[in-house]
Amino acid sequence: MVMLDVFLSTQLNTFGLDMRFSVASGTTTVLLGESGAGKSTVLRLLAGLLQPRVGHISLDGIVYLDSERRIALSPQDRPIGYVFQEYLLFPHLSVFENVAFGLRAQHLARPIVRERVSEALSRVHLSGFEKRQPHQLSGGQQQRVALARALALRPSLLLLDEPLAALDVQTRREVRQELRSILAETGITTVLVTHHYIDALVFGQHILVLDQGRVIQQGGQSDLALHPRSTYVAELVGMNFFHACLMRYAPDGSCIVELSQTQPTLEMTVRFEEGENGSEVLPAGTDVCVVIDPRDITLQFTPPESSARNSYQGRIVQILNLPSASGGLVRVSIALDGVSLPPLTAEITGTSAARLAFEEGQLVYASFKASATHAYL
Ligand SMILES: Nc1ncnc2c1ncn2[C@@H]1O[C@H](COP(=O)(O)OP(=O)(O)OP(=O)(O)O)[C@@H](O)[C@H]1O
């Protein structure tokens, strides 16, 4: 079976990790999560540098770990390439010697070492750099040497821990594209750790969102963007997100929901998308998720005249000018009155923001149509 199958459950002092995933081999899986979510721990468990309490790891039918059957290959016996955040290149060795290091440790014959180093450097587009020392390379090139060192061992599984973390913003952009094409050309099963959503978008054919040692959501990019299931993912994809409880249907087919964890209760009129429970009548009490695109929210100082719109009063807590690449929009965060929900975010044009002269601390009405919402189970 051409799959990477992983089940890991362990406890490290107070930190518990419990996760399971299966992905097609030859693809890149991204572990996305905040600092401390457990991402590096998963890599260490995959590499065999840590042992879980119980677990199972197999790739293409080859079992690396099966706690029930007492199988646990040592790190040396797992065909895994591991690229650490800091690359850990040997500063006094040339690029050639850095890449050859693991091969020499395997006591391979010299011609084979030369062939493998040359092949690995060519894969990362660094042929001709053999004699350079690490300090003569840019950050992006050092990162590729570290990658070549891992690839030279011809691993079946490549583990990349925050591969872009040590790079400045400009270099990160270039290296991101380059790394993506190297991984695509190589076609190696890869697990990549990051806390940047943009990396998840660029690299991840499959994205696992980790929080406190648990997978809180997994899927492709569009699954996350269209159906976030937590405030964390919704923030990453730039949407407003609410858990809610279905109360009743309105005659026009829209639904009245009550937002969860609000005291006093807040109602919202929402719409299910066609094809997604669009025709199915759900019972009252059903838990639903609701997202609203910040660009569909209107802000004004007086209550909206149309009662057809959802409208909430709140106080502006932050005004942020988005980069001009985002269309010169202004992001306004509004803390809704009397409820302890994360602020509602509206994105309005720079012209509207200038016309209305918003300031932090002002009371405003945020409104949006039911048709601007997207509800799902
Ligand atoms: N060997 C260990 N013993 C005890 N606790 C540990 C051990 N290794 C990691 N932890 C704890 O496990 C949690 C997850 O750590 P981990 O490094 O996997 O997170 P992460 O998502 O990779 O974060 P970062 O992006 O900061 O590296 C942390 O709370 C950490 O303190």
Automatic annotation (TrEMBL):
PROSITE patterns: ABC_TRANSPORTER_1 (PS00211), ABC_TRANSPORTER_2 (PS50893), MOP (PS51866). SUPFAM superfamilies: MOP-like, P-loop containing nucleoside triphosphate hydrolases. It is an enzyme of class 7 (translocase). The keyword Amino-acid biosynthesis does not apply. GO terms for biological process: molybdate ion transport. GO terms for molecular function: ABC-type ferric iron transporter activity; ABC-type quaternary ammonium compound transporting activity; ATP binding; ATP hydrolysis activity. Residues 1-237 form the ABC transporter domain. Keywords: ATP-binding, Cell inner membrane, Cell membrane, Ion transport, Iron, Iron transport, Membrane, Molybdenum, Nucleotide-binding, Translocase, Transport. Residues 305-377 form the Mop domain. GO terms for cellular component: membrane. The keyword Ion transport applies. Its EC number is 7.6.2.9. InterPro entries: AAA+_ATPase, ABC_SmlMolc_Importer, ABC_transporter-like_ATP-bd, ABC_transporter-like_CS, ABC_transpr_FbpC, Mo/tungstate-bd_C_term_dom, Mop_domain, P-loop_NTPase. It comes from the Bacteria. This is ABC-type quaternary amine transporter. It comes from Ktedonospora formicarum. The lineage of its organism: Bacteria, Bacillati, Chloroflexota, Ktedonobacteria, Ktedonobacterales.
